[in-house]
Write a structure and sequence with these properties.
single chain; 422 residues; alpha/beta; four-stranded mixed beta sheet; elongated; binds uridine-diphosphate-2(N-acetylglucosaminyl) butyric acid
Length: 422
């Protein structure tokens, strides 16, 4: 298993480019199942979750050709409409094939995900939505079996709570359903709007994606298309925090500044300087060594456009270096504070109380051996290590490889002392 060895204390300086969004690319790959014609996706990030999804699609019957950042997919026939436990347990987003499979061939068998490191993460809302569209659902032996031999029909689906992949799954099911589907209390994440863009390019009729009400008029069939994935806002946000925590001067290129608006607002309040030289670039200068220092600022995670839960762990690392007390409240997942104990082992002063973490700073951090527990928790440990005195060894970096493309190379390019040890 690979490890990262990081020596802290160097402010980041230079330029980093973001990759395409992992959480946009995953549903886009699944959407290719909706047509027998070729779908070409550009700016696909080269991360492990994407390779896992491609493997699943090959098992289902797709021909997948990846070259650099471009992936060409074609699924003339669904050979096996199934997502087995072995894949779903390593990547929960595998359940994104449920909607497209039922829509395309009238049946799907998808393993139930089970618990994970950040919370229970059930898929009951995906199932509820498909039932509204007329699918018959049977649950047995740890699998969900969905059937709609006569095809799906449009319906009103009012989500009990906001779900990102649930909204995406239902949107993909509804594009081939008879009649109109209205998704209410839908997720407004940019990844949902990006998926709608791809589906429209494939001939789907969708309005309102990016708002909480999405209207879909089912069509007879979809055709092939070419589409570029949006920049990864969580990767961009991680680099913004890396600049702020090291007191560096970093320019982040090929990002969408609007998508990280909630984080930028917090960084400005904390005393970092953030400029937007153009529509796809952000420049951050940290305030650690400046007379003002970083100030503690409370944060509560929310659905988009609120503060992303996927940046909470990284933000907590930042708050260990800020002056004062910061309250970090996690409202999306029930168990997303695994990084707090590891940060504490490096010297952070963090108290957990149910949904909230109370971070007192600034505390000097020192390098230690720490273990990555999930994707974003690992990123927060990397950020802490960048300012810790001495050497930090982060074990189980396969978690970080699931969602960050060559993070060590990108950070090293901006002066970080980080190496991967195999
Ligand atoms: N939920 C239910 N029932 C459902 C679906 C969700 O109760 O059927 C609950 C979840 O347990 C959670 C909340 O609703 O408490 C929100 O979950 P959501 O469904 O929105 O999460 P997701 O779609 O499984 C995506 C991202 C996550 C990100 C969340 C929240 C992808 C592939 N994954 O997950 O990304 O944290 O939205 O924004 O898009 C990551 O990249 O590190 C990551 C975990």
């Amino acid at each position: 298993m690979d490890k990262f060895v990081i020596t802290g204390g160097t402010p980041l300086d230079g330029e980093i480019e973001t990759s395409g969004s992992k959480n946009s690319a995953l549903p886009a790959l699944a959407a290719a199942l909706l047509t027998e014609e070729p779908v070409v996706l550009n700016r696909i990030p080269r991360v492990r979750d994407i390779r896992t999804m491609q493997r699943l699609l090959v098992d289902i019957g797709s021909k997948v050709d990846a070259e650099g950042e471009a992936v060409r997919l074609q699924t003339p026939k669904i050979a096996c409409p199934e997502a087995p436990y072995e894949l779903v347990k390593t990547m929960r987003a595998s359940s994104l094939v449920l909607g497209p499979l039922v829509a395309r061939c009238g049946r799907a068998r998808v393993s139930l995900p089970g618990g994970c490191a950040i919370g229970a993460r059930p898929i009951n809302l995906h199932i509820f939505g498909l039932e509204q569209l007329g699918a018959r659902i049977n649950q047995a032996h740890g699998y969900i079996e969905a059937e709609a031999p006569e095809g799906l029909r449009g319906a009103i689906v009012h989500f009990d709570r906001i779900t990102v992949t649930g909204t995406e799954d239902l949107m993909m099911a509804a594009v081939l359903a008879r009649g109109e589907t209205i998704l209410r209390n839908a997720a407004r994440e940019p990844e949902v709007a990006d998926l709608a863009g791809l589906l429209r390019a494939m001939g789907a009729k969708i309005e309102g994606a990016g708002t909480s009400t999405i209207r879909i008029h089912g069509v007879e069939a979809l055709h092939g298309a070419e589409h570029a994935i949006i920049p990864d806002r969580i990767e961009a946000g991680t680099f913004l925090i890396a600049a702020a925590i090291t007191g560096g001067d970093l320019t982040i290129k090929r990002c969408n500044p609007e998508h990280v608006g909630a984080l930028v607002a917090k960084l400005l309040q904390a005393g970092a300087e953030v400029d937007q030289p153009d529509g796809e670039t952000l420049r951050v200068r940290g305030a650690v060594s400046a007379p003002g220092r970083l100030r503690s600022v409370d944060v509560t995670t929310e659905e988009y456009p609120g503060f992303a839960t996927d940046l909470q762990a990284q933000y907590m690392a930042l708050m260990t270096q800020a002056e004062g007390i910061a309250l970090v409240v996690e409202t999306i997942f029930e168990n997303r504070f695994m990084h707090a104990q590891e940060l504490a082992r490096m010297g952070a002063n963090i108290r957990l109380d149910g949904k909230q973490a109370i971070v007192a700073g600034p505390t000097p951090l020192t390098g230690a051996s720490v273990i990555a527990s999930d994707l974003r928790a690992s990123a927060s440990l990397v950020l802490a290590a960048l300012v810790a005195k001495g050497e930090t060894v982060i074990d189980r970096v396969y978690h970080i490889d699931r969602g960050y493309e060559r993070i060590e190379a990108k950070l090293a390019q901006a002066g970080a002392r980080i190496t991967r040890v195999e």
